[in-house]
Amino acid sequence: MRIEKLDQNTRKNLLEDLLKRSPNSYGAYEKQVQEILEAVKERKDEALFDYTERFDGVKISAETIRVTEEEIREAYAQVDPSLIDVIRKSLKNIEAYHAKQMQYSWFDSKPDGTILGQKITALHRVGVYVPGGKAAYPSSVLMNVMPAKVAGVDEIVMTTPPGKDGKVTPTTLVAAKEAGVDQIYKAGGAQAIGALAYGTESIPKVDKIVGPGNIYVALAKKAVYGHVSIDSIAGPSEILVLADETANPRYVAADLLSQAEHDELASAILVTTSMELAEKVSAWTDTFVRELSRGEIIQKSLDNYGHILVADTLEDAIDAANEIASEHLEIVTADPFEVMTKIRNAGAIFIGEYSSEPLGDYFAGPNHVLPTNGTAKFFSPLSVDDFIKKSSIISYSKSALEKIHTDIERFAEAEHLTAHANSIRVRFDGKE
After folding, report:
1. Of 47, 89, 256, 322, which one has the greatest count of Cβ atoms within 10 A?
2. Cα angle, residue 40 at apex, residues 37 and 43 outer, rounded to 5°
3. What pTM, to 2 d.p., does this model score?
4. Is 328 annotated as catalytic?
């Protein structure tokens, strides 16, 4: 990995380089995505089936698009029982963590006759998109479904592209069944996002779409936002390790590569105060790349977006981490909890040398659907909050309103909204 001195120029160049990976930079695909969405909106199932045959190489129909209970049983028979056991353990951890995020309705009544409050309502129907083929991640099924289940969503609909044999990846089906998905449909790509957003004869319209996907899926979600809600426009995966001379270089190198193996656009960055650590980590990454099965992808990722930045002080390193606002941030320093208090921008923070990033991907419980491309400056991980909505409650008695009605009228008249003022005034002008 390249080793660079951390200064204003390297920081500026790095940030510009990382932003090139954003889905917003792929405008060339937007026209094609929009055409697919319009076709699904107008022709519904017919367009969905046509695109599935064209892009996935499999014919589906109204009779075969929905996954049956028999297909789910077949999937269980094909998945190693030990993996099913791990999925169940992970699911319990994810459920327990998200249960602590629950919000509840509240009401505040006062003696003067006023009642104010907030009503919490779960979304009615949510769509979960799950990639298929080689990019089948049962962990993402759990992470997207469980917060919705904890929130109390009435109906969870999942779409995932079928293989050439018309089947869905067995581990995906097992994870979906364990998590409690209500309906599973064989559809992928932008056409599946269109089906969830607009509804077809086979797939019901949802209120929100969550889940990862390729650039077509990301742009489709962006295009339908406003018609339905979405979780985020996810970019390529990224990790930043913030370390000092106390860090184990072998561990740090291994953690950096855990994200670099996702794809050639993934970003792996080490910011450290130790040149000695930087050199050792660089050497260890070379060793691991030669050993790992996805070494070619990892190497291209490191060549494109891999960086080791050496800072003069820990404060400079922390400032750089906050500016980059990485999806995953590992802190491996002498006092990692003190450093953590100074971190403002990160999707998930992993503290200490035994809190490796894959712990969060699979098992610990916090959600692994995280803000990317610097959006951790203003976005949060997927949570129960994403599957609820809030309504304000206002109730005033006549006597409570009478005490303040002239204040409201004065405010409305100052904005030249006389009908607003009149709506209050008629209740106290003595006329019926």
Report:
1. 256
2. 145
3. 0.92
4. yes
